[in-house]
Amino acid sequence: MKKLFTSLSLLAGVTTLVACSSGKDTGTTNESTAELVTTIESPVTIEFWHAMSGTNQEAVDALVEQFNTTVGAEKGITVKSVYQGAYNDLKTKTTAALKSGSAPAISQAYPDWVAEYLQSGAVVALDDYINDKEVGISDFDDIIEAYRAENSQYEGGKFYSLPFNKSTEVLYYNKTFFEENGLEVPTTWEEVEAVSAKITELTGKPAFGHDSSQNYFITMVQQFGGEYTNSKGDILFSEDNAQAAIEALTLMQRNTDAGYWRLAGEDKYMSGPFMSNLVQMYIGSSAGYSHIASAEFEVGVAPIPQVSKETEAVIQQGTNVVVFNQNKTPEEVYAAYEFAKYLSSYEGNLYFATHTSYLPIRQSVIDSADYQAYVTESNDQTKIVGPSQDSAFFYDPSFFTDTFSSYNVRTAVGQAVEQVVLNGVSPEQAVQDALNQLK
Questions:
Q1: Which of 122, 106, 115 is nearest to 29 (CA)?
Q2: Is the pLDDT of residue 386 over 70?
Q3: Using CA atoms, how far apart are residues 367 and 186, in angstroms rounded to an integer?
Q4: How distant, in Å, are the alpha carbons of 91, 109, 115, 162, 355 from that of 88?
Q5: DSSP bridge partners of 321
Q6: In this structure, which CATH number among 3.30.565.10, 3.50.50.60, 3.40.190.10, 3.30.470.20 belongs to the domain 42-164+317-388?
Q7: Can you say whether residue 156 is alpha, beta or left, with left for phi > 0 and alpha for psi between -120 and 50 degrees?
Q8: How far apart are CA 34 and CA 14, in angstroms?
Q9: What is the pLDDT of residues 151-173, one digit of tens each?
Q10: Could you give phi then psi for residue 420, rounded to 5 degrees?
């Protein structure tokens, strides 16, 4: 990828010549325009690239229509919703577009994608817009702090993105089974071990699973009092600080060896085994409730278990939206910001949170009568349990270095979990193997 963005820098020099004759600004400094443009003289049309399908796409298209007929109509902005396929397809197409000088004005992006896109010099820092007296976001502090922190984790603490579709992890459990067998919903990992042993004794099958081996490692390292990485690209579970990682892997190995826990494995997600009564509880995304809502038993939703109250940690997930200035006029950049602002506004977020499986990004939305009524009607408890954990939210730091990226670290630690479960590798060796991959 380093070679890709080296070519991008060279390409930027070529496209600058084209831009001079077209009146467009290639903008290759990851900054907003020198003179902030906050009005549009002639109507502009921009594209919003995304990976939302099904009901999520319907919600996105509705938001685009709402924007175009309100804010857009007032300011002379038309947004076109462009579905680019699954997330991997969106990433591939956006990377190719940056390479060819044809990036969209605004796109959905995971934080680690943003870290990579920053290498192109085409990402807009939104701070000047956010803080502007005329077009800024006056209620910016209403956005949940963990989401603001995630979007400003990059160099200089600047906002190179704004939050969009967000989720977290919750504990799903077979409420019918638990009640019939007099079982208590676990709140600590000691309790998870104890109730898992009881369930396996009753069913002869594993009791518990986790959707994501990567999330298990990242979360449990912090719950055991350790650290994972930071946005500078430092590995913080290295040799001298590996104890928390070793404890996390030991916990997993002990319970899988006993037959109490299992990995998703070929099922990919635990929702399938859960629906088939192959496990009675699992940790998965709050956005995945729709996959188990039709279960033949009552589904319970609870906060994820913790090691202790002092080290509570719950990962927050999902994409943000990023604005590009590659071959864009200042007016097009401003138009993209206005749409990003709309998506993160109270009105936009309330609509999205009540028409998709994703969580609110604003406290005012969570507290609103409209949202509470929606939760009651939908009976989707992830919409309450998910946000209730926000004081413990943390984000997976995103970075892109000459040696490795946050994606590479995430892959390596997921493999460490699989190694101790599937191959009997010691936790100490699994941690060392992960570190060796990143040298």
A1: 122
A2: yes
A3: 27
A4: 5, 11, 16, 20, 24
A5: 108, 162
A6: 3.40.190.10
A7: left
A8: 21
A9: 999 999 999 999 999 999 999 99
A10: -70, -30
